[in-house]
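Bench notes, afternoon.
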Amino acid sequence: MLKLLLLLVSHGAVLAIGFALGVYFLPILTEPNGPDATALAAAAEGARYEVPLSRDLKGSDLFHWGEGTISLSDRRIVHKGELSPGPDYKLYLVKEFVDDEAGFLAMKESAVRLGDIKTFDGFIVEVPEDVSIDDYNTVLVWCEAFGEFITAGKYR
């Protein structure tokens, strides 16, 4: 009986570790080619705002972080830097700066979701014509699947 219990526990642990590793590595393995440095620089040209991203935010941790620079123009948002890999990342504009899950969840209804982030070493997301970046002051990356704060930057 003890042997059966040990087998169940050990196999369950291996299954859990395998699942966790799969959740972490699948987005890396399926990541499409992102824009190169030239495309990022061209897309960021003429940006009205530029904000640095830091790993040192309250809601960031070893597996959820972003660094680099985000440039905002009226029609596009460009990230030059790195994001921790993960599934189902979304880019939001928020009316008040938040730096953790609880803060974002409290104002998620008033935030506007701009689009998906599929690459972790730079991205370009188009801003819909009916959205004005001047109505907001913070850009935020959120993992929708797990409700995890990734990073944010206040641009005005």
